[in-house]
Amino acid sequence: MPDADLSILNEIYTVILERKNTPADNSYVCSLLNHRKGINKILEKVGEESIETILAVRNDNREEIISESADLLFHLLVMLAAKDISLEEIAEEFKKRRK
To answer: Does the keyword Glycoprotein apply (predicted)?
Structure first.
């Protein structure tokens, strides 16, 4: 398997943080972060994307698995940004678990 360029995750997370700190009109991220339901709207999306990912795996559809996993990761990144949790903190948790 070729080495993946995971810097895209940092790039996406940076854009999410920019949208959080400097809201932009017609931004999907801003609509999630500023939704009247607050964090619950983001959690709904995480739940929805989780179910869609599970169904894609159950259906053994590789393209859907990739697409739905990307949607799930995106919404997880929005959730982390909403709660002021950095990717570095998640990476540190993985390092602790690896020991």
So the answer is: no
